[in-house]
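Q: Can someone sanity-check these two? First one:
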Amino acid sequence: MRQPSESSVNATIWDSTTFYRTPNLKNNPLKRPRSCQNKECQKVDRISNLPDPIIQHILSFLPADDAIKTCILSKRWDTIWTLVPNLIFRRECSCSQEAENFAVFVDKALMHYRSPKVKKFLVEFEFTECFKAQVDSWVDFAVRLKVEELCLEFHREIADDPDYYYLPNFLYNNIPAEKLSLRFCALSPNKLKQVSWMSLKVLSISYSWLSNEMIKNICLGCSLLEYLKLNQCCGFDQINTNFSSSLKDLVVDGSWGPEDKFGDFVITIKGPNLLSLTLAGYMHRANYMLLDVSSLVEANIGYRMKSCSHGCRSNWYSAHRSVLHDLLEKLQHVEKLTIGTWCLQILSISEVKGLSSPTSACKYLTLNKKINKWDLPGIASLLQSSPNLQKLTINLMPSNNFEF
């Protein structure tokens, strides 16, 4: 969200009375149009006549810089934004100067925020180590205001950039948040041994390194955790949810295996209390194995394996067909099953080769695939192996996999 250079609402401008410099009313794009000839119509400002809590609720859906810009509308709007329940700070540009301006903008916005509590606090920009102290202060601010949903979602222009945001020590204590989302954040293995997120119900971790022990400690330290998502994480080969009786929904969206174990690296999942399991995204040099998922009601196996050259596709299929077959056998009891593009292609080849799908108790089957004639054998195999099927849903989604 690049600030236009000619704008009178540049985030770096500050004075003692308003957040932004007073705008030029002659060129102000927010100036009320005079197209209405009815004088009574011109006098009516229905939005400004709304109660403050409703206006604040509306503004809470906007990024913070857009919400703050409303302070130039009138004196009444001057401080309305300071009580919005959600604070959303986003900066997509990777320019270092704009990142510095963004950090200054967040600092100043928090100085003027007057609400005693914040419902959602989100900060997203390209983090580098020089912003560590400032981000720590923002997180401390959100925790002190008893934040309900905390989102630290950083991004980077270079994938192997070493600048991860290391969570401050106080964040491992009993924070009030019920939802926590971390992207390109580094977690301390030692701190996770004593982690206490007793209010946390939803946790999402993206692009981070996690060991088996760290995942175990997260489950142990989150007694109310219901939903766990691991997105493009690496470092583990086991997800054991036995340590969390409350965890019901697990999402694994892609994972990275060691470079020297292409196709031989297996991630085992143990979840006797899980009700929903999603395996999505690209799997790099790794496969899945389900050990105990007896309570599952819903499963989505929409993951994809990295494509290969034409010359190795036959061996590639043979290597992964047994993995998919084993997954379907472990999911025979689920009532709701979703199949994605890659899995459906494997099933189609298997059917042509005379290898049918395992029998399923599925009642509701969803196929996420733009159907073509090569998918028909796989669909037929699924239908024949699902005698209890009551509803079939086909989402015609474009494929990003190669066609066999």
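And here is the second, same format, sequence then tokens:
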Amino acid sequence: MFQMDAAKVTELKHFIDQCKANPSIIHTPSLAFFKTYLQSLGARFPPETKSEKGDIDMADSGEYSDSKRPIEDDDEIVESDIDLDNTDVVEPDNHPPQKMGDHAVEVTEEKRDAAQTEKLKAMDAISEGKLEEAIDHLTEAIMLNPTSAILYATRGSVFVKLKKPLAAIRDADAALAINSNSAKGYKARGMARAILGQWEQAATDLHEASKLDYDDEIGLVLKKVEPNAHKIEEHRRKYERLRKERELKKAELERKQQAEAQESEALSALKEGQVRGIHSAKELDPKLNAASKTSRLAILYFTASWCGPCRMIAPIFTSLAAKYLKVVFLKVDIDEARDVAARWNISSVPTFYFIKNGKEIDKVVGADKNELERKVKQHSG
């Protein structure tokens, strides 16, 4: 025989005492499974107050009595309960399916008349409250004339009265298969679905029945069905909106993370405070792209080993790199990287191109160190 540890028994008793003293504890999200289990045993709890739900009140429409607020985490959104009117809802009738007629049977005039006689007997039985007897007569009528939608729909309506919704739905489906405009078929199926608590489907069927042949009974059932169907629709829209917002936030977070990763990758290709030598167009493009991604100014310095002014300005360029750490300083020897020099149409050295977001914004031609530093300062801000 299973025995619970004495310490666990003590903890359980203490928890029960806490619940008695403060029933709102049961609304704690971490106890959702335990609460659901107790509800399945018929337990009832005081409604959750606004303060217990936290900062986000999921009952903003006034149509909900939430037992747990939605919690967004890495895996799911926990949906709240819906406060529906489930009075008169029954469990499905899991009986063997009722007898259904064989559509391949030839229906003679004699059988049709006999079926009508059985239907009249069924109507008399219904008026006397003898519903099971009425089912027997209608079943006999269906066996005689299995192509009559009205017979199936009528038997379905009796099954509704007997609180046998699945049997009623089978008959309604059969009636609608024969006659897609069977108002009685839609009505029987709608009322059966209402008995099962299938509020949205019930509303659809009953509205269709109303369009075909409205009666007061349909209107009466709709007064209960429609509020529940509307609550479910509002509930669905609310959580679809929450999921969409969650997906958008997730996409935005992923976009930011990707951008940060790209920027980090770009920064790793740029050495702050140093002049990077460029030996070919293949080397230049990634550096300019990295500068563009990080919104940094890039200065492209064209030089040559035989150029005296270039040798004079080179230390100035290096000192500027050490001073302006957020600027990308690139150096190109036109004799070594001829493809780069040709692309930029270099006709004299030294020449300095100022590039931002992939576009040339300024340049300095010649070894004018004051003009060079002035423009570095101007465009690096």
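A (reply): Looked at the second one. Residues 50-73 have pLDDT under 50 and may be disordered. Residues 76 and 243 are 9 Å apart (CA to CA).
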